[in-house]
Amino acid sequence: MKWRTILLQYCFLLVTCILTALEAVPIDIDKTKVENAQPVDSAKIEPPDTGLYYDEYLKQVIDVLETDNHFREKLQKADIEEIKSGRLSKELDLVSHHVRTKLDELKRQEVARLRMLIKAKLDSLQDTGIDHHALLKQFDHLNHLNPEKFESTDLDMLIKAATSDLEHYDKARHEEFKKYEMMKEHERREYLKTLNEEKRKEEESKFEEMKRKHENHPKGSKDQLKEVWEEADGLDPNDFDPKTFFKLHDVNSDGFLDEQELEALFTKELEKVYDPKNEEDDMVEMEEERLRMREHVMNEVDTNKDRLVTLEEFLKATEKKEFLEPDSWETLDQQQFFTEEELKEYENIISIQETELKKKADELQKQKEELQRQHDQLEAQKLEYHQVLQQMEQKKLQQEISPSVPGGESKIQPRI
Question: Could you say which of 2, 221, 234, 416 would form a disulfide bridge with 25 (CB–CB 3.0 to 4.6 Å)?
Fold first, then answer.
């Protein structure tokens, strides 16, 4: 059903390839007029895991809502603002009793799951006196004040929570890559310090050569598309036609280029530069390059920001000055992800962490040595105790076998 895609389109607005996997159908009514657009059976497509801790609950809610004709109709006519504002969630009050019953059951199951997770976590900490009601407040994808009923508030909270969480995830991904790059540079510089002058110059020369090689990345321009047209499509680059190119790479023939279809174009070009067999080629950077190119193209081409590119949007983009210029896109090697000040600050943090770890390691070593000393002391005491016991037992046995008599001689009674 197409409407579920629209709902997920908003929820997953900031996640790469979620809309693609669901074969997204746009809300903008003008997009339905694209020629040769063919419907796609989304029921056959299994949406990927979003990475959200309530991913399964989100999918189940959508599956149930999909069965209500009234809600599906309303959503087909809705726009992003109606979904974002929560006005569409009010339509939940008009869905069938059967659907509401199923949603209620899903919510009760989700609340039970969260309570079980909370209890398991607190039990591991040996905590007692659990207030499930208070702890449920930390989960903002459902209304914990009414754990029995799924209301319009729950749908609104679910959509907003998914959007917010995924937005933070996207931002966190960029931050993690920045840290990754700073750590790489830090380790490179530390390694250079261990080399003599000759070896250091060799390494610096090798590093610069690698940068020059990677500057030959796809630029997101007409020249890049022509390469795909020639190499992947097997067509004459002199006969390049944007309209034909669009239809060739609209893999599912739904009339739009989604994020996955766009990334497929970038991947073919990126693989010319990044080879997992080469030590100098960083596959983490290749992935970041592909994602940034997708974001760049979406920002430049997707004018209504629905994460889909229509033929009209694509054709307009190919007429822009930026598209015609081969060097319009800056590759990762041309971008500065951090300043020297940020790197120094990061290195200071690493230094502090290393100092704290060393301090803890020293403390643990001292504890280990103290425990070993106590162990050795106990073993010595144990050995001494056993020796005393043995001496006492030997002495007692000797007294029983050979009792002492006056004069220091033993008296043995004759046997009659």
Answer: 2
